[in-house]
Amino acid sequence: MKKLILAVIAIVILGVGALFAINGQSNYDPAKYSLEVTPKDKPFDVGSTLNFKLPDQFDKPHHLTSDIKKVMFVFTKATGHIFKTFMADKDKKFLNERNMLVVADVSGMPTVILNTFAMPDFQKSKYPVLLIYDKNMAKRLKEGKDANKVVLLTLNNNKVTKIEYAKDEKELAKLLK
After folding, report:
1. pTM above 0.70, yes or no
2. E strand or H helix at 162, and its extent?
3. Structural domains of the chain ordered from first start
């Protein structure tokens, strides 16, 4: 019995070690991606201009272009679930038809958790989800915002004209009519 317990413990330790070895490496290359908010000396707010290049869940780079009219940020696991639930019955053209991007902050997530659980879930999405891996980028975008709600920016030529918040799917639906 003692040998069986030791064998099970050894197998678990090897399994966890293998999981960390396989999924513990980040593929994110910070040199490839960027965030620029102007003016640089003030908190990001209405009137700020936003430019970024971020990867999606398949490592495909996306630039914020002037045709994008809305950017939705989810900074927490809870706001991610709000967005995911809201989008569950939407067609894959929903975001494109609204000239909208979705950006999720994964900067605080341990790499092994991101790669093992979150990334496969993101990859099941019918739409691109841009990812913020960099804590400084996330901090710059969250500064002065209610990060416990879904944050929706309205843009005109990359300039923020409105910032709105949704605490649940119902409020998010109202914002995106």
Report:
1. yes
2. strand 159-166
3. 28-175 (3.40.30.10)
Tokens of 54: 């971020």
**pLDDT beyond 80 at 139:** yes
Q: Kindly give the pairing relationship between strand 130-132 and strand 100-105.
A: parallel
pLDDT tens per residue across span 82-112: 999 999 999 989 999 999 999 999 998 888 8
Q: Could you tell me if residue 47 is left (phi over 0), alpha (psi between -120 and 50 degrees) or otherwise beta?
A: left
